[in-house]
Amino acid sequence: MLQQIARQQDIVEIAPQGSTPKAAALAHVAEQYGYTYGMAYRTGFKNSLVQVRMHRDRQPDARAREAATITAHPQAGNGGSVPGLERGSLKPLPEAVGAVAVLKDLITFDVMAMYVADRSQKVKCYLACAVLTVLLLIDRSPVEAVPSGGVVALLFTVAFKVGAIRRGKIAQRLTDAGFLAVRDEQGGQRFLRPGQQLPGHTNPFAS
Asked: CA angle at residue 84 from 181 to 23, to 5 degrees?
């Protein structure tokens, strides 16, 4: 990641081999070098990898932050100290814990979008349950087939509900932290800091 930053790339991709907290810690480091959070999603084999995209922030305060970080951590890419993290670790320093926690919520909220079903997804899942029940009826008695299909439908319902509740709690934490709930160009819900624009573009999210 630091190599990408050193090349002054407009977009930095973060994909740590680990948990969301590690991705959040690295995103915090990128912010200290004048980048701003863009989005997060799952990728890789069985969606096992969290990918975070950071965009270069052209605002004067971001450029000042970058200059101050370079001055304070001149050897960051050569084994020296890294802003906001303990040396040789992805553990946040006490003063960075709060900021990393917010980034973790942003990442988790975006990543969970693929698991929060909309109406069409729910219809497809329940239709699949119906098809499963019909297939089971071919080889088994209704006493076995119907409950089996019902159990699968119940599992889907619980998963949808739990996902929505968890995402709602994260949304509340982000709102409490001063972020604004908006809709992106695809209609998905996102959170932005007041005055923040869609990273990489000139137009803000539509409210």
From this structure: 55
- How far apart are alpha carbons 54 and 157 in whole angstroms? 34
Q: Which residues contact 101 (CB under 8 A, 6 or more apart)?
A: 24
Question: Are the C-beta atoms of residues 5 and 33 closer than 8 Å to each other?
Answer: yes
Q: Give the tokens for residue 138.
A: 């071919």
Q: Which amino acid is at 154?
A: L
In tens, the pLDDT along 161-198 reads 777 788 899 999 999 999 999 888 777 888 998 877 76
Ordered DSSP codes for 63-109: HHHHHHHHHH-TTGGGTS--TTB-TTS-PBPGGGHHHHHHHHHHHHH
CA distances from 95 to 4, 17, 54, 77, 86 (A): 25, 25, 21, 21, 11
Least Cα distance to 67 among 83, 80, 87 occurs for 83
What is the DSSP-derived secondary structure letter of residue 187? Answer: S
CA angle, 196 as apex, 9 and 16 as ends, to 5°? 45
- Signed CA dihedral, 160, 103, 53, 39: sign only: positive
C-alpha distances in angstroms, 18 versus 49, 91, 201?
8, 13, 30
Half-sphere exposure of 106 (CA within 13 A, CB side): 29
Name the residue type at position 55. H
pLDDT of residue 158: 64
For strand 189-192 and strand 180-183, is the pairing parallel, antiparallel, or unpaired? antiparallel
